[in-house]
Amino acid sequence: MQLSKLVKAMIVAVPVVMLAACSSAPDDTSTTSTDGTTTTGADRRGVESGAADRMLSPEEQRQQRFAELRQEHIIYFDFDTSEVRGEFAELLAAHADYLVRNPSVRVVIEGHTDERGTPEYNIALGERRAQATADYLRNLGVSASQMTTVSYGEEKPLARGSNERAWAQNRRAVLVY
User: Which of 72, 133, 166, 172 has the most neighbouring CB atoms within 10 Å?
Assistant: First the structure.
C-alpha cells in the first residue's frame, strides 16, 4: 500500500516539476524609455503593454486637419489680380468652418500689394483682394458681420526687395483674428 501511494505521488509530482523546470522565469529587469514608460524584459521581447491609440472619426480627422490649416493666415495672389487661387480653397474652408462654428469671433481681412503701381491703384487692388477673400468666406457660410476688410496697398510689405520673390510674398490677403 505504501508503494502505491508513493507511485501515485511520483506520477503527479514528476510532471509538475518538469513543467516548472521548463517554464522560463519572468525577466525582472526593467527599463524606462524616453517617453517615461517602463517596460520589463518580457515587454521588450515583442509584447506591448499599454493602451492602443483611439481611432479618430472622419469628422474628428477633418477638424484636426482644419486646426492645422488655420495656423496659416495668408492667401497669396497673382500679379495684378484679386482672384482667389484654387490652392487656397482648403485653407479658406478651414477658416470658414471655424468662423461659422464661432459666430462671436471677428476677423479683419487685410489686402496687400507689391510696390509696383501707383499708391492709389495699389490701395484699390488691396481692397479688391480683401473683398474677394471676404466674398469667398461669405460663400462658405461666414456672416458678413464677422468680417471687416482693410487695404494697406504697398504700405506694409512682408518682404523687402524689388524682385519677383519679394513681390510674390507681398501680393496677399491676411486674416487677422
Answer: 133
